[in-house]
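Would you mind writing out a protein's amino acid sequence and the numbers that encode its backbone to help me picture the idea?
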Amino acid sequence: MRILVTGASGWIGSASVTELIAAGHHVLGLARNDEAAARIRGLGAEAIHGSLDDLASLRAAAAQADGVVHLAYKHDFSQMADAARADRAAIDAFADVLQGTGGPLLIASGTLGLAPGRIGLEADMADSAVHPRVGNAAYTLGLAERGVRSLVVRFAPTVHGAGGDHGFVATLAKTARTKGVSAYLGAGQNRWSAVHRLDAAKLVQLAVDKAKPGTVLHAVAEEAIAARDIAAALGQSLGVPVESIPSDRAAEHFGWIGMFFGADAPASSTGTRELLNWAPSHTTLLEDIVAGHYPGT
């Protein structure tokens, strides 16, 4: 198939492009600028200029493809509602083109906040109050009724690997280096899930090739890593002490990431593994941290 990938030059997108090409697909990568286009071509894909702010460019790009893998998102925590609206508009643009074709439309979502107090499952649906993006996932699943092979991949909050990760753990590492201490909140028993970017990319490819309309998948390799273990690994890697701080100091110490790092958000991928025979095989989060892939600079 000809597959359009948004976010093709990004952390998860670039790995997904490689997996899709290896599986025999012709990939068209959406590029915001010449630099992104060069990276996409370097992966062996065709670059098409466009952006989430230009819906005409999205429709034109999708019209050249048999399906869409939509991984791009405006990750601006100060403008969450606006980012979700832009995402919904992009999904609508792709759905208009793919309607009635049976072509895949895969979008990215997350497991954070999915099932407070227990391990989140693929069958669970988070409250839209958790993040305005949640509603977009539910909307996308409904597109199956319009003849679109709609798929939602919920990624673990930490998609890790060597070089290029600018997400939660990279921010925690930078905080630890700046503050001179790798901290966790309270007892540090709250749990995070994680997945290596290459395992996540493999799941994207399997979903495009095999998943049925209306399917929810979890890109989760490790379902429950204690926050204190993450802090300990960062302390070991960066050579700084590890200590607990009170939860009421989360914002003071961590800034915006404090409210997330204190969450208890384990998630399972048992259903995903059974459905698509997905078998994560790459290094764990703690192994990547100890290996020095998060220098905090």
